[in-house]
Amino acid sequence: MSFHSARHTHATLQLSQGTDIFTVSKLLGHKSLKTTQIYAKVMDQNKVEAVNRIQLKSLPSTDGEKR
What we know:
By secondary structure, this protein is mostly helical. It has three helices and no strands. Helix 1 packs antiparallel against helix 2, helix 1 crosses helix 3 and helix 2 crosses helix 3. The longest helix has 20 residues.
């Protein structure tokens, strides 16, 4: 594993475990928060994929019709 890959993995894991982006930015030594936001975009995509995996079943309404 390269040093860059290890840093990227570390940042992604920190964000996935709830570490705020400002702390991750400081841990990585980034001068600009925009640099760290690259990792946040990875996490945002993971959230979208997770939500899209949920399959909702039709629930009966109060009037007996399915919605």
